[in-house]
Amino acid sequence: MKVNFFYSSLLKYVIWLTAFKTIVTELVLSDVNKDCIAKNNGTTSNDYLLGTWFKIYQFHHLGPYPTCSCLNVTFNRPTNEEIRSYREKYNSVDLPNNIGEDAVVVDRKFYTKGLLLGNSEAKTYILDSHSAIRLLEGYEVHVYKRINNKYMLFWQCCLRGHVKWLLTRDQNSSEAEMQQIIRDTPEITHKNTGVRYCNGTCY
Fold this sequence. Notes:
There is one protein chain. By secondary structure, the protein is an alpha+beta fold. It has one domain (2-196): Lipocalin. The protein has helices at residues 2-21, 31-39, 46-49, 80-89, 175-184, and strands at residues 51-59, 72-76, 104-107, 113-117, 122-127, 140-146, 151-156, 164-168, 194-196. An 8-stranded antiparallel beta barrel has the order 1-2-3-4-5-6-7-8. A hairpin with a 5-residue loop joins strand 3 (104-107) and strand 4.
C-alpha cells in the first residue's frame, strides 16, 4: 500500500511537471498551429464540453504504465467578471478567436485554469489572469474531437499529436467499451501503448 502511494505521488508530480513544461504559449500563430487548425476544422460545440470529464487514457510512445490516478477537468461558463479579466489581459494579443460569450472555462483544479475560445475542433486556449503562471500572456491551440456523447479526444497542437488523451464523462466506463472506442477511433495512434488512468483505487 505504501509503495502504491509512493508511485501515485511520484506520478502526480511528473504529470504536474509535464503540464507546466508543455505550456508553450505564443503571441503569433506558428506554422505548427496553422497546420493543426487546418487539419482539425470540424465542429465541437463548447456546449458539448460543459461538465466534468475524466482523463481515462493517455496515448504516447513511451509504453503502458497503468495508474490509479484519476485526473479530471471541468468545463463551465465564465462569469462576466472573468470575461472582463481575460479581455483586459489579452487586449494586445492577436488571438485566433475572439473572447466571446460562447467561451468556456477549463478548470484542472490544482494544475492550471484557462479559457477556451471557438466552436471548431481546434480551439484557442488562454491562461487565467490569476494563474500561478500568469506571466505567460500568449496562447495555445488545443484540439477537442468529439467521438460521441460520452467520449472525446484531446491533444495540444504544439506536441504535434504525439501525446493524446481519451476523455469520458463516466469514469466507471467498462474496459471493453473503452477498448472498442480506441479501436474505432483512427486519430488515436500508439493504440497498444496507452496509459490507463482511474485504474483501481488510490490510497
